[in-house]
Amino acid sequence: MPPRSPLAPHTPTDLPAVAGARLATAASAIKYRGRDDLCLLAFEPGTAVAGVFTRSSTAAAPVAFCRANLKGGRARAILVNAGNANAFTGRRGVASVERSATAAAAALGCRRREVFIASTGVIGEPLQDEKIAAKLPELVRGLAPMGWRAAAAAIMTTDTFPKLATRRARIGDATVTLNGIAKGSGMIAPNMATLLAFAVTDAKIPAAILQALLRRAADRSFNATTVDGDTSTNDTLLLCATGRGPRHAVPRSAGDPALRDFRAKLDELMIDLACQVVRDGEGAQKFITVNVAGAASRRAARRIALAIANSPLVKTAIAGADANWGRIVMAIGKAGEKIDPRRLSIAIGGTVIVAKGERVSGYDEAPVARHMRGREIGIDVDVAVGRARATVWTCDLTHGYIDINADYRS
Amino acid sequence: MPPRSPLAPHTPTDLPAVAGARLATAASAIKYRGRDDLCLLAFEPGTAVAGVFTRSSTAAAPVAFCRANLKGGRARAILVNAGNANAFTGRRGVASVERSATAAAAALGCRRREVFIASTGVIGEPLQDEKIAAKLPELVRGLAPMGWRAAAAAIMTTDTFPKLATRRARIGDATVTLNGIAKGSGMIAPNMATLLAFAVTDAKIPAAILQALLRRAADRSFNATTVDGDTSTNDTLLLCATGRGPRHAVPRSAGDPALRDFRAKLDELMIDLACQVVRDGEGAQKFITVNVAGAASRRAARRIALAIANSPLVKTAIAGADANWGRIVMAIGKAGEKIDPRRLSIAIGGTVIVAKGERVSGYDEAPVARHMRGREIGIDVDVAVGRARATVWTCDLTHGYIDINADYRS
Do A169 and A127 belong to one domain? Predict the structure, then answer.
């Protein structure tokens, strides 16, 4: 087991309770020994749900199940297991999800279409779902408003620290709570970032509006992060709104002015969780923020930023604390987006290296080299053809990544 | 300096002479010490030339120069330097290429538009072209029909072995010769594979036809290989036809039936060189052939094969000799192409692991594990929606890649 990432942020020992939500963890022993690997989130009736999933064409059975249930817009439970992704398991995998959902619905006294299932771990191995069902009574008995950190820990696979975040937001005169947990370390790339993440609020927001808010937040957070450019079969991001918090007027649209603060805090929460995932990127020793400005469109800016963030040569240079800005030039070039090479500028750690398409005269590498030896690396690029910008977060590519992935099977 | 790649093939100590072509090498000492780093290929008047270049939007100054000269369709010289890419060097870089070409034209008594320049090495450093010009008299004096291996060695950067290949082809009753040299090890991905490659034949083929033949061959070879998915600023592939070999009828089109054998041998030569580059992929310990069949189009097949070949998780699993076929499923899924997950099949080393979208019953990992411990890895995928196929070649992702790139600057 690799040591805790040196980039792990300080996170609270627990999150505040969210009215209408309870949670519990248990140990199924499907794969891991001596740790919890199941997490159940249970919600009061009337809870709205929104979801964003992997775009993989080999999406796992639980993803298909959640997509179907999302149409109802209601959630009473999210059941998560770590250690087996139940991906590419054919008809047996589908049956397995259905049995788990049936068991959860029975244990909680709700309908199966109000149950959401998420799995993470090894692909292609049949899931011993009977071990999950066997633990449902224990999980239901254990449901409590607290224990978010334990829940975040129970869903980990190669993660080295649990990922959790909380925010408070104003809707009208009411202050609502937003909690989130996430897992993810490898197979992390947009569409969406390869991970599981579950957020819960006690605000009262209809499912359709919740979906619009979540899609926007996911685009600004998980879809703007990458560890290795690989996309999981199991990416699942769910947002539930119990409506059991302080009373407020029910918003009428995603653009409702009353939601301004909520939107901002939801974006913040998701960026917080997404960056925690990057900070736990397999083998990561440095956290990298890539800002691209001056692009022809937001999409172009994002693509250029991702080309830099996904380049193995850029990532290894940063791992080696090498201010090899030529590799950034290479990555910009390979993105295939419109740029003006004669007006391009590049800065690392705030020090301008390239301006007007050439290395600045009298360039002094010393401050850049100092910055490169730190844990937090900033790359700023201006491609000088427009006004659109994008930010992408990633980590370096190190021996640790090879260590973990050249013999890890989970 | 890393040791010679364990995947290096046996190559001849020299190639046969090609009538109408001579070559020489020299040491400029621009970057390297104690080795040749300049190569001059010189051709008799009337030599036709074709070229394919990087699609990078930050292409280097010599690439722009070659593109312009290619319009003339004639080549008298190719001048190559290793150690400095003359990329992203602004107006100074452009002037530098022009001075080198002027010096070469003067030394050989030809026109500057018949001179082609290629550079490889560090990006963004001004090129001391006066050191190249100073060596031109020595290079011209040294021109000889043999010395192909030395030429291949002179253009190396992080390469661990020189890359060269030769073929003979029939055009009508004549047997012509095709020689090629290449360099490349990192920044290797299609559009085109990041490298320099120069091929010469003594056949008589007009430039327009040569261009069509080269484009086709590049697509089947260099554009079907990847080491790290990064695309260089300097990719240059040139093919020259001196017309000084055995007499044959001049072909009238690229599809001329008389060119059938030549086309096949040109493709073979280019695939040979491209695979040598992959075999020298930075840190490579295993050579991987990915075959995708059953795709909706050739383009889709290629994209799926590249998604597998570029996946860090697939490449590290292979480095660890881990038959982790779930990562292949993941990579297929992220390609975003049409597939039928319920009919998908996957084989490794000829052993079928997945059939009809599920792991085969009674799957025995032993023969696959044995295959994975070898040097040559074969992955066969059928996505079951059409009849198109593609092959892509790549290598594994190892600690060696990190070693080389986390502190290499060249």
Answer: yes
User: CB A402 to CB B319 under 8 A?
Assistant: yes
Sign of CA dihedral A393, A399, A404, A405: positive
| Phi, psi of B20, deg, nearest 5 | 95, 0
Closest CA of chain B from A316, distance in Å: 5
Q: Average of pLDDT values for B4-15?
A: 89
Residue A312 sits in a domain whose CATH number is 3.10.20.340
How far A109 CA lies from chain B's nearest CA (Å)?
A: 34
Q: Which pTM does this prediction carry?
A: 0.84
Are both B58 and B165 inside the same structural domain? yes
Chain B residues with CB under 8 Å of A57 CB are: 332-333, 335-339, 341
Confidence label for A400 from pLDDT (cuts 50, 70 and 90): confident
Shared domain for A207 and A66, answered yes or no, is yes
The contacts of residue B285 (CB under 8 Å, 6+ apart) are: B6, B7, B319, B375, B395, B396, B398, B400
Same domain (yes/no): B119, B267? yes
Neighbours of B134 (CB within 10 A): 14
**Rounded to an integer, what distance in angstroms lies between the CA atom of residue B255 and that of residue B386?**
27
Distance CA A205, CA A242 (A): 8
Number of domains into which chain B is organized: 2
Tell me what ipTM this predicted complex has.
0.76
Domain check: are B319 and B274 in the same one? no
Give the phi and the psi of residue A42 in degrees, each rounded to 5: -120, 145
Q: Are B57 and A336 inside 8 Å of each other by CB?
A: yes
Residue A84 bridge partners (DSSP) = A120, A122
Q: What are the pLDDT digits (tens) for B219-253? A: 999 888 877 666 677 889 999 999 999 999 999 99
| Cβ separation B322–A406 shorter than 8 A | yes
